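U., I forgot to send this yesterday:
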Amino acid sequence: MKSATRSLLRLAALLSLITALGQARTVTAPTAPVMMRDAVADAQLLAKNYDGARVMRIAGTSMLPYFGEGTVVVVKPIDSAKLRAGMLVAYRNRFGETIAHRLVSRETTGWVAQGYNNQQADSTLVTSENLIGVVYATFHTMGNNATQIATSTTPVEVALAAPAK
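Result:
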């Protein structure tokens, strides 16, 4: 009887460990009980305080767990000389897409950027020519669904948090 109980306890402990490991690999976007239109309105109020600040909606999951689908961000202009590794920036890649990723390292001709969930760095370096700005604030919403986007009162530029190209 004692060995059967011990075996059951070991099995339960092993199953708990496997479940915990499986959950640790599941990464979801932070959400808040906030409608997209409200997050956009709040972001626009904040952006008004900074010359050239822009409000963008995130599409993609490469920046999880920090932000993902449906997050609204405020991007403030920044002098490229002030960039540092670890900063989250928005920039335009060589395909003309707006990307929101993290700066990883400095090269002689620009900065290497990469999404937290991407296995490789972006192929376009961030330079003073393609830099839009630094992600200054994030507003989490209930996610990125078509109803929320369609009912948002103001069109918002999209920044991709996507696999590296």
